Amino acid sequence: MSFIRHTARPEIPNMSAPSSNGIPTDTHGKLQEDYPPFQLGDSPIDDYPPFKVVVIGAGVSGIHAGIRFRQRVPNLSMSIYEKLDDVGGTWHANKYPHLHWIEYQFSYDRKTDWSSLYSTGSEIKSYLKSVVDRYALSPYINLQHEMTSARYNETTGKWHVRIKRLSSASSQTPSEPEEFEDTADLLFSGTGLLSRWSWPEIDGLQDFKGLRVHSGNWDLGGASWEDDVKEWKDKNVAVIGIGSTGLQVVSALQNKIGKLYNFARGRAWIAPPFVRDTFSQLLSRDLAAADENYVFTEDEKKALQDPELGERFRRELEQGMNSMHSITMRDTPLQGQARFDTSFLFPFPIIGRNGVDIREKWKPLPRSYLSVCVDEFPNWFFACGPNSVIGTGSVIIMLEHQVEYAVMAAMKMQRERLKSVEVKKEAVEDFDKILDQYFPRTVFSEKVRTWYKSGKEEGRVIALWPGSTLHALRALRHPRWEDFNYEKRDETTNRLCWLGGGMTVNEINGTGDRSWYLNDGYVDIPPLNASPSS
């Protein structure tokens, strides 16, 4: 299901302006002399052609992508496909005991009534569902629709995406096929890094006759995990693993079952509390009695409704998290891990130029450009790709910027009437060299088994960004367009054909706003006696 939205593109302050460099002289398999003589474009410069986006996944990345593509790309047609039966991604799929995460919210959609600094998984999912409702995304989202393959058409510059309707999909009718194809000018995948769980390799595990439950697929039928374990009072339960998930599960189950065994391959590295004092001080708690209780009292919840305190609380906690990157350098502690498939080998084919399958291209190691795209796969951008996670700081702000990068690429394609945008192989190779030289300086290269290295003790760090969160945001904020190759949509020798005939839509029609350059959001008013911005 696709919905088309025709609007003028809003002006976006402080975004780098895409350029028109790098247009190859040989597109569609033709040389320049095969094109018609140089001609002036015949369209208004802001008469944006229809643009289709397909988004895979309706978790945090997919939800943010739906919001930003709609906001910034005019004349847009968009479909979001999600294989699960509800939105939320990881926060819908994961229901294991004592699932908590530090306040998880978009930078532009602040929630002021969290129950705790470390919110429950169900509370985070509820927040994400409320975002979908507030931004009216439901008409674009197709639940229980699973992508099975994607293939790039080099002639048209379109992605052809195969989608399978799962048997219980609410939109399915007897007359509809089980599998169908959708096409897109730009494909964006927001499948979570921790969305593909896997069992550890343990001899005899498959022969175990009792109940086996993976934390990444906790679905025992109860309304909550507490309901699931009500009958476990006399049971012996073994928990394998002592990463962050294992620690949460063990602490939740220990008083609800007969006997608990926790099997760990190695030590668990736990960082000391880093926000306790700030948390207590902001809430006027007694610092001398500060403990690990991060649950808000009713009075504290009421106080945080105050915009000034709420904003200060949020900013100071973010400031604290963004001041910790130095602990990732050598001679400082590591943290524990969980068991997921982080090989970046998709369970379905994604075929780029010349029939290249991403599953083969990313063997033995996945490589990307700034964690958002890869050569030989034009018009495909992703969040949660190789080296996209940060060691310290906010995960969600990183995902936001990865999405913003894809949106800026879409804006460039539409405005300049480009058939394809593809990162250069040399740029991917240079980013790869940066990874090789950066991580040996960090604790992540120590001989410790971690999902950052696909569950290995040694080898390439394939999950983490080579730097701090703030470093990543700076890098992604302003795309370096000269690192890309381009193909024009139109067969013309005029690389500036997007300039059109010299007028805008409103001028030609004699309607609409013709003084928009004075609008708030476009006018950037400098402060008096301003110093250079950071």
Automatic annotation (TrEMBL):
Q: Where's the FAD/NAD(P)-binding domain?
A: 51-287
Q: Which intervals of the chain form a coiled coil?
A: none
InterPro entries named in the record: FAD-bind_Monooxygenase_sf, FAD/NAD-bd_sf, FAD/NAD-binding_dom
Renumbered residue ranges of the record's region Disordered: 1-36
Alphabetized PANTHER family for the sequence? FLAVIN-BINDING MONOOXYGENASE-RELATED, L-ORNITHINE N(5)-MONOOXYGENASE-RELATED
As for family, the record states:
Belongs to the FAD-binding monooxygenase family.
Tell me what this protein is called: FAD/NAD(P)-binding domain-containing protein
